[in-house]
Amino acid sequence: MSDTYSFLPYALSAFIGIGLAAATGFRVFLPMFVVSLASYMGWIPMSDSFQWLAGLPTLITTGIAMVAEILAYYIPFIDHLLDTLSIPLATVAGSVMFASQFADIGTFPQWALALIAGGGTAAAISSGFAGTRAASTATTGGLGNSVVATTETAGAGIMSILALAAPFIAFILAILLIIMVLILGRKLWRKFRNFGERNNAKTINVEAVEKRHLE
Hints:
The protein is an all-alpha fold. Helices cover 83% and strands 0% of the residues. Helix 2 packs antiparallel against helix 3 (56-72), helix 5 (107-140) runs antiparallel to helix 6 and helix 6 (145-165) packs antiparallel against helix 7 (167-214).
């Protein structure tokens, strides 16, 4: 029974870390601002190695970066430019958010687990929504991108709050999001592959017709 109770804090930390990492997959700086605010106000504890997150300079910096990031996604072309940077940035941010919850297990296992679980979760969700924005641009001419941006911001806020207030629910949602991204990613890949094959077939047919006319 004592072994079970000793395992619970690590499980709770994992749930919080995965939830925060999933939130960074939507927006990089919003979850960091939420964690910085919560730790600055004393709502959540922060280990010595991550006390910088609880500092006022970090709170101000992440707040400014959060607002700039949210607004930038409503600017045409800039949103796609940010998508090229969002995956590596989300991977780093997701790793940091996850590692902040596992400060007492040793440096190497802490960051190895953070990179795999936290960074992997953030990268998967970030890449999924980058593909959604690309599909929105292709199908709506960019008119639907603001809806995607608003959904991402809402998702980041909800996941950040849930990760701190209801970690298990945040963990379940993160797993469901990853599954959804994998399923949608496969469908989009098949759609674009079939589209490319149809275009190649049309090109071949045109070339065949032109060849017949020349003969």
